[in-house]
Amino acid sequence: xxxxxxxxxxxxxxxxxxxxxxxxxxxxxxxxxxxxxxxxxxxxxxxxxxxxxxxxxxxxxxxxxxxxxxxxxxxxxxxxxxxxxxxxxxxxxxxxxxxxxxxxxxxxxxxxxxxxxxxxxxxxxxxxxxxxxxxxxxxxxxxxxxxxxxxxxxxxxxxxxxxxxxxxxxxxxxxxxxxxxxxxxxxxxxxxxxxxxxxxxxxxxxxxxxxxxxxxxxxxxxxxxxxxxxxxxxxxxxxxxxxxxxxxxxxxxxxxxxxxxxxxxxxxxxxxxxxxxxxxxxxxxxxxxxxxxxxxxxxxxxxxxxxxxxxxxxxxxxxxxxxxxxxxxxxxxxxxxxxxxxxxxxxxxxxxxxxxxxxxxxxx
Length: 364
Description:
By secondary structure, the chain is of the alpha/beta class. It folds into two domains: 5-157, no CATH class; 164-363, no CATH class. It has 13 helices and twelve strands. The protein has helices at 30-33, 56-65, 114-126, 145-157, 164-170, 175-186, 211-222, 232-248, 250-256, 262-268, 274-290, 328-341, 348-363; strands at residues 5-15, 18-26, 34-35, 75-80, 83-87, 97-103, 107-112, 134-141, 194-195, 209-210, 319-320, 323-324. It is elongated and about 80 Å long. The relative contact order is 0.09. The mean pLDDT is 90.
């Protein structure tokens, strides 16, 4: 081999009859050896998707802000160049552990992890000390563009992102996620009735709301995001608000007593869907700002509100052609209906949205 090489402690394996290697690579070396196809190269001549630069700052910030907790999965790359593997032993376990030597003239092409690579480069600018830490890299020997493209397709074909709900369930940094997890234990209408893994609920499910819907609705209620600082008062307010609604809306009271099936409630009523829960969070925020001391008493009109899906008021708001819709405008229009029921004046932008709705419904 050439006089100048990269050397990695590595493990050797075999997949589909081809050798591959898993090595630990210092973070400071990642930006120097891994290349990314330029965007101007046509897709059919690339082995990767175009880099989405909007994602990089967020990933880099994740590394910098969590230097003792961040974690990354392996980068996968192809090596186009001379490679030599020297095992520790000729037989036994040692035959697949050893030193991987790669010529410095080799070309490294990332098949999976280009956004991690770019974020690592950005994070090192803010904290150079991270450079001595490492990330695992899976090296395949380059077998041409066609093989690299197929490798990219295969790696991403079966990748499934975790649902929003389970992400909230497991996230220990997001304070709103922590607050939401507490809500599903403390609020009667959420306790035992929250789907914590999926973001949708099947027709026969015994659950009423998803954890992601509770998170989003509470975010609007408190007007705070996961990266904001939460106080004990925020937890108390959110718990009181959703608990009071559970005592106010008749069907929710019946559900708390388990005198009706959740599937029946979701089939017949708007208020058991994410769009309405989100809208209740929006309306609740305005109500609490308007009546900070007596907001609980002001919720009484919601007990007499017709929440049935057959009520024409919900078409064009929570529903479109009879199906529930969580689109932004439909959430806002649903919140408008709730505000009007509570006697809360609408803002100019909300009045304009109402006007647009009436025009559309009039045309239909």
